[in-house]
Design goal:
heterodimer, A: 423 residues, mainly beta, four-stranded antiparallel sheet, 3% helix, globular, B: 241 residues, mainly alpha, 9 helices, Cell division cycle associated 4 (chain B), E2F-SERTA_domain_protein (chain B), SERTA_dom (chain B)
Chain lengths: 423, 241
């Protein structure tokens, strides 16, 4: 099924994917073993479960899709792992536990669980824990329902590890992880008259260190940093990040391509990364006037915007990601291409996630899109790009150079064996 | 020389529109292509899958684009007054399915006043092909976005099912495809002009842009296919399986 979200946990040991059918698949990194040095640190399927089912809202006569929009891992406190998964309307907290031992030697039941004939029991024994094949059990611990009228586009766990937020097109709610029947509305941009609606919330995230700060992005390309200490309802932003429009590039599509599809804080907490249709931008929290860095993802599409509007591709929401040291940023594009930008060297690379171009353990060959002028042998021309093959979801391991790239219904995991440490 | 059917009020030089060099021969076709973009946007706004809520972000962005075009056309003076009766029959038929949809939503909204009919603004309508669409412009917006509010107050499961069947019927009859039947390759020239890159090499009506053509036609047919599944689903609910 089509993968709709990808997320590493905080150690990078686990990788969760959600798909359009409401399923979650968790991969686990195999520990490096001396016996098979080539398979060191590869990801294998750890658990699969059905997170959300399709529902029907009888009051509005509308289907609620089971597609998983986002997965966020909770920080681990004990042997169990927990994650939040959400579709358009309902967020669920899942607990993942391992069982690798089972008790044997009951007094009242036999090995199959049938009650023993008590007359045959002559002595008491203490049940012993014997090893068994690893069993991964997943259970829903909380269901956070009925908090949203509109479609949930983001969830973010707070650094306080007690609360989290969920954002839909017009509102953001704050939940406590232990309380399912109540949530607090912290942002509401719904106008009194819906006909006046011109802007929606597109993404939202808590600051990684300051539990009172969060950011949300809009369809008009602005970012708002809010401080929950200022007011219960954070309708007034603390900071507004907006880049003035470039008058030379103005067109009917300017607003659409400025709509921010994803926002991510850097691990340091000092910067924010945003993705709009043609660029990724790095913002310094201390400067609201404009981003400090702008990288062109596929500027050759600028002259094709009308066609992309017609076939709806202009509304595609690409995600973006930081590497663990905040030195490299990554985002997806079309034709199963994804792009990486090194902030220090200012070099960038285009790679492809496809079966043909990635044999296991083969080095990925950089790709190039030619835009007229000299054309090299393996270049792809803009007109032969496949716009149905889009890489919307990517994730970067928190500590190592391992990336997960979702290409429609295939998941690719790439590792940089040579440079496995962050620079 | 001039695009057919388009009356020019005066030989106007578009001042800094879309970065077109003033006096460019693209000026008359610019208006026609802007019109095409407006038509396309209105069609996009009205095509909504009735069993799954339409994407609000997409609807808002399209509506903002329509508003921009309307504002520019008003400034240009090309926004013509046109009586609804003068609208062509054929386009009316095509768009009637969604108009019915929007009308029934409005009727049920009860106290909600009919959008902008008596605003003091004359029924400004850009062109014959979109006469009913423009009238219904406010209502699809409000019906799309107020879907939540108005339907909440409505309740009435039976009524909603009627709506579903209406749409499914009209969509299944291929009206969706008819809406796209008029898309001709002149749309693709919009790229060069409307994204302000007039000087860009015209990658003619050729090869790669066919990819966009096929991409355009696939959404309607897939929505027709999924409609049959939705009809099944709706019937399942009725018989309570």
């Amino acid at each position: 099924d089509i993968i709709s979200t990808v997320e590493f946990n905080h150690t990078g040991e686990l990788l969760a994917t959600g798909d359009k059918g409401g399923r979650v698949v968790i991969f686990q990194r195999e520990p490096e073993s001396k016996n098979a040095p080539h398979s060191q640190g590869e990801y294998d399927v750890y658990s699969t479960f059905q997170s959300h089912e399709p529902e029907f809202d009888y009051l509005k006569s509308l289907e609620i899709e089971e597609k998983i929009n986002k997965i966020k891992w909770l920080p681990q406190h004990n042997a169990a792992h927990s994650l939040l998964s959400t579709n358009d309307k309902t967020i669920k907290l899942w607990k993942i536990t391992e069982r690798d031992k089972r008790p044997e030697g009951y007094n009242l039941k036999d090995e199959e669980g049938k009650l023993k004939d008590l007359s045959t029991v002559t002595s008491l024994q203490v049940p012993v824990l014997k090893p068994m094949d690893l069993m991964v059990e997943v259970s829903p611990r909380r269901v956070f329902a009925n908090g949203h009228t509109y479609h949930i586009n983001s969830i973010s766990v707070n650094s306080d590890c007690e609360t989290y937020m969920s954002a839909d097109d017009l509102r953001i709610n704050l939940w406590h992880l232990a309380v399912t029947d109540r949530s607090f509305n912290i942002v509401d941009i719904k106008p009194a008259n819906m006909e006046d609606l011109t802007e929606v919330i597109t993404a939202s995230e808590f600051h990684p260190h300051h539990c009172n700060l969060f950011v949300y992005s809009s369809s008009k390309g602005s970012l708002r940093l809010c401080d929950m200490r200022a007011a219960a309802l954070c309708d007034k932003h603390s900071k507004l990040f907006e880049e003035p429009e470039d008058p030379s590039n103005r067109s009917f599509f300017s607003e659409i391509i400025s709509s921010v599809s994803d926002v991510k804080f850097s691990h340091s907490g000092r910067y924010m990364l945003t993705r709009d249709y043609l660029t990724v931008k790095v913002w310094d929290l201390n400067m609201e006037a404009r981003p400090i860095e702008t990288y062109q993802v596929h500027d050759y599409l600028r002259s094709k915007l009308c066609s992309l509007y017609e076939n709806d591709c202009i509304f595609d929401k690409f995600e973006c990601a930081w590497n663990g040291s905040d030195s490299v940023i990554m985002t997806g594009a079309y034709n199963n291409f994804f792009r990486m930008f090194d902030r220090n060297t200012k070099r960038d690379v285009t790679l492809e996630a496809s079966r043909e171009s990635s044999k296991p353990r083969a080095v990925l060959k950089p790709r190039r899109v030619c835009v007229g002028g000299k054309r090299r042998r393996d270049d792809i021309s803009v007109d032969s790009l496949d716009f149905t093959k889009k890489i919307l979801h990517t994730a970067w391991h928190p500590a190592e150079n391992i990336i997960a790239v979702a290409a429609t219904n295939n998941l690719y995991i790439f590792q940089d064996k040579v440079n496995s440490e962050m620079h | 020389m001039f695009a057919r059917g388009l009356k020019r009020k005066s030989a106007e030089e578009p001042e800094d529109v879309e970065g077109c060099p003033a006096g460019a021969r693209a000026a008359p076709s610019y208006s026609l292509q802007r019109q095409s973009l407006l038509d396309m946007s209105l069609v996009k706004l009205q095509l909504c899958h009735m069993l799954v809520e339409p994407n609000l972000c997409r609807s808002v962005l399209i509506a903002n684009t329509v508003r921009q075009i309307q504002e520019e056309m008003t400034r240009d003076g090309t926004w013509r007054v046109l009586a609804p009766q003068a609208a062509g029959r054929a386009p009316l038929d095509r768009l009637v399915s969604t108009d019915i949809l929007c009308r029934s939503v409005r009727e049920q909204e009860g106290e909600c006043p009919a959008p902008d009919m008596g605003d003091g603004q004359p029924d400004l309508v850009p062109g014959p092909a979109v006469a009913p669409a423009a009238q219904a412009l406010r209502s699809p917006q409000s019906s799309l976005w107020e879907g939540d509010g108005s339907r909440e107050s409505r309740g009435g499961f039976q009524k909603s099912l009627d709506q579903i069947f209406e749409t499914l019927e009209s969509q299944a009859s291929g009206s969706v495809e008819e809406l796209f039947a008029d898309v001709d390759s002149s749309y693709y020239d919009l790229d060069a002009v409307l994204t302000g890159m007039v000087g860009s090499t015209s990658s003619g009506p050729g090869s790669g842009l066919q990819a966009f053509a096929s991409a355009t036609t696939s959404p309607p047919s897939s929505s027709c296919r999924s409609d049959l599944g939705e009809l099944d689903h709706a019937v399942e609910i009725l018989v309570e399986t």
